[in-house]
Amino acid sequence: MIPTRRTLLAALAAVGTLASLTACGGGSGSSDSSSGKAGGTYTFWDPYPQFDASSAWGKLVTGCGTKAGVKLKRTAYDTTDLGNKALLAAQQGNAPDVMLVDNPVVSTLVEAGILNKTSDLGLDTKAIQKNIIGAGTIDNASYGVPIGANTLALYYNKKVLSAAGVDAASIKDWNSLTAALKKVKAAGKKGITFSAINTEEGSFQFLPWFWGAGGDLTKLNSARGVAALSLWKQWVDAGYAPKDVLQNTQTTSWQEFATGDYAFGENGTWQLGNAAKAGFDYGIINIPGQNGGSAPVPTGGEFVTVPVQKDTGRYDVSKKIVTCLTSDANLLPTDTTLQYVAPTAAVQAEQVKQNPKLKPWVDAVAAARGRTSGGLGTKYPTISQPMWTAVQAALSGSKSPQDALDTAQSSAQKG
Amino acid sequence: MTIARVDRPRRAASAAAGASGTDAESLRRRHRRRSRLTALAFVTPLLAYLAAFYLYPLYRNLDLSLRDYTVRSFVAGDAPFSGWDNFQKVLDDPTFGPAMRHTMVFTFVSIAFQYVIGLALAVFFNRHFRLAPTLRALFLIPWLLPLIVSASTWSWMFNSESGVVNYFLHFLGVSPVGWLTSPDWALTSVIVANIWIGIPFNLVILYSGLQNIPADLYEAAALDGASAWQQFRRITFPLLRPVSAITLLLGLVYTLKVFDLIWIMTKGGPGDASSTLATWSYQLGFGTLLPKFGPGAAVGNILILIALVFGLLYIRVQRRQEA
């Protein structure tokens, strides 16, 4: 008798707690939406935890809020966290008013149905380069405004190259690059470092070579895809690239290049500040395609988005905030701080005028592609994961490039 | 258990008073009700805690694994019930076999080494030489360090280009090994790191077990001319058996779910050479741009089931020891 009654009481207590928890959740949600139209507090999320409220970026965000007549509460998350945080918040009905997200996440959030179209909000995106906004465009509708773009190129160490007798200008295609690596190794230095880690970063770094061979993401195991993976494998096997590329993030790969031992490092615009501090002369070339020319590189960088709200009256203010953040006058200082290339031709011209070193990056961005562009959308993540697994399998020697990509293709098709 | 102890004297007191009539009867009833309310008051915080932090998450995880969640239905909360589909999908996945195998190898090899080394050290420190307490305390360091620190340190030491392990091998004339970058070595490397982290736990528990073995047994054995090895085999090991069982079973449950160490060192790579059920579950749920909550939760539930089997085994062993 006593045991059963105890269980009953336990169950009642459990239900009581749960009910009170859900009640709390509902309460906070409703108080949120009641916080008026004009005035009040608006929420803003971004993936820049490195900038605090006193930074230029922090001040710009606060300023745009003030201009729109509201208090803008900014929260910074780690970039890998932001996508999942946004999904959870949307599920709980308290998504932020304005959110800055990494571009390949946009299509996932659109698939979840939590972003507004820029056309519905009445935002003007005409001035923005097509290939940059492409990553946030699904079925011909764009769901965000890029704040800036970054991409990949090859940094090279002038001293190492001249010691090995290599002229950077002679590197036009894969063959000449491999030949240069061979010479560097013969001269007792290290060839090239990149990131082939088993995360999205690994795919991001592999794409210039994959696309540079003419590869197609919907056919990973085509001869072109295999050629790109074979190139990387050849480098690792011959010792032109270190084995630890398999563990390298783009940051640790940069640290390797910054030791001064490496001839080349595949890295992004965001390392320019560190490059100046590296203590050696460096140059930048665009990543070559297999048979010459510049390889298409993937675009990086964030989009300003406006998540769906129950209270549609909030959009007017949100729109003002987005317009403020992405106005030409504000883009210039923002992209200078973030070391991004601006998404509009006018601001790009300004940037190059201020810093001529940005010219190769502006060119690279002009030739860049969004990872989720070309109708891939949320198919991209289901392709990217098998792709980085294949890169790892091939470089570590557990599978041949062809076998690895065959496996990747079949698991990408399963989705 | 505490509640039972509170109950007992009261009940005895009221039983003594209950000899005289109805007045005492109602008093006794009031007493009993009040004691039950007190008991409830004591137990409610625990129940609330269990419900909020164990029952509800478990229920949610089960729910996730039994529904066909996409990002859209996750947000809208209208994912259709799909029965065992997620489990079927996970079991059919080519990653499942290797992940299961790696989980088992990782768990059992880790435990075997942790236990043997832990026991050897415990016996060693039980000899009460000078500095023994200090040295024993030093052995606890792996336990005290935050896992992110120890895992990152191991990952640097095992680095194939600039790691200190390969540096020493170089002096011995051995060519460098791709500890974390070769599919043949990655699992071994994470196991080595995990053994190092697990030794203190085994050492501490087994050492305290040794303290409970009466010293006169050893004295008697020594008088009978038993060698050190015979003393260990005939006295230490059999008398340590209950403690050993608990250590091994707890270790099993802890090691099964190790995630952070592997994730920090290899992320389950290269390829899936060191992926276990725990890292795979995380990979599915959070490792890509498009989360697969359903299959991720399914893998998590399989892991919980395996841990549960060992947990029940532990409870059984414990009960048998108490009896």
UniProtKB/TrEMBL annotation, chain A:
Residues 1-25 form the signal peptide. Residues 396-415 are annotated as: Disordered. Transmembrane segments: none annotated. It comes from the Bacteria. It holds the Pfam family SBP_bac_8. Keywords: Signal, Transport. Belongs to the bacterial solute-binding protein 1 family. This is ABC transporter substrate-binding protein. It comes from Streptomyces longisporus. The lineage of its organism: Bacteria, Bacillati, Actinomycetota, Actinomycetes, Kitasatosporales.
From TrEMBL, chain B:
The chain crosses the membrane at residues 37-56, 104-125, 137-157, 185-207, 243-265, 293-315. InterPro entries: MetI-like, MetI-like_sf. Pfam families: BPD_transp_1 (PF00528). It is a multi-pass membrane protein. CDD domains: TM_PBP2 (cd06261). Its main location: membrane. Residues 12-21 have a biased composition (Low complexity). Residues 1-10 have a biased composition (Basic and acidic residues). The keyword Zinc does not apply. Residues 1-28 are annotated as: Disordered. The keyword Ligase does not apply. It is found in: Cell membrane. Keywords: Cell membrane, Membrane, Transmembrane, Transmembrane helix, Transport. Belongs to the binding-protein-dependent transport system permease family. This is Sugar ABC transporter permease. It comes from Streptomyces longisporus.
